[in-house]
Amino acid sequence: xxxxxxxxxxxxxxxxxxxxxxxxxxxxxxxxxxxxxxxxxxxxxxxxxxxxxxxxxxxxxxxxxxxxxxxxxxxxxxxxxxxxxxxxxxxxxxxxxxxxxxxxxxxxxxxxxxxxxxxxxxxxxxxxxxxxxxxxxxxxxxxxxxxxxxxxxxxxxxxxxxxxxxxxxxxxxxxxxxxxxxxxxxxxxxxxxxxxxxxxxxxxxxxxxxxxxxxxxxxxxxxxxxxxxxxxxxxxxxxxxxxxxxxxxxxxxxxxxxxxxxxxxxxxxxxxxxxxxxxx
Length: 280
Fold this sequence. Notes:
CATH class of the largest domain: Alpha Beta
Strand order of the largest sheet: 4-3-5-6-7
Order of helices and strands: HEEEHEHEHEHEHEEHEE
Shape: rod-shaped
Radius of gyration: 35 Å
CATH superfamily of the largest domain: Response regulator
Largest sheet: 5 strands, parallel
Number of helices: 7
Number of domains: 2
Oligomer: single chain
CATH topology of the largest domain: Rossmann fold
Helix content: 40-55%
């Protein structure tokens, strides 16, 4: 548990609990959000100004272009998540421009805007440009805003599917490295502790959480079996009926006992130092 807590703290992972609810964990993954940009393409300046008015309170920036060349130049310069393009453009049809955008910026969500009922254009928009929606002119303001929000949501979903696996792989590698680092520290700590205990002239025992002896220095070879049993009993019964500390279980037979409890998660949970050497 302590090792897990150390890893979570090092990686800034947060866990919180609420009464009656399951544990919730949050992790600050690297931000993958880009500035939200909508590109509106229409040869009529009045239409572009109307779109800017309708969308002025929306949570994205509205970019405008009156021809294909300007639109493509903007997309080469700025990230554009959604394109709203008029079908009837002077230099080339909107369907053809959207098909070019699909080729060079396949992740961009494409929406067609047209004031004319053109079944062939609809078929071309669907088959060639793979448009997300087809909106009429004049548009309904609420429907326009809702469609654009859905388009940005679609873009974010696609981006998450593309990039989250890589982000998870990177973050899991960080977890693996942190586990390795902390495990190495624990191993180094235990080795240092063992070396220190081996130098002590008094018996020393290290017990795990279940009361099993996992470490004994050379001086401990002289300990009577009764003291070993008392040490195990003290750990296996951490809450004596009389309310004494579990290490006090050794006090009657070893009045000069020194006991140390180590943090949870360590293979060593208790270290006993028998200051008074037993009489053979």
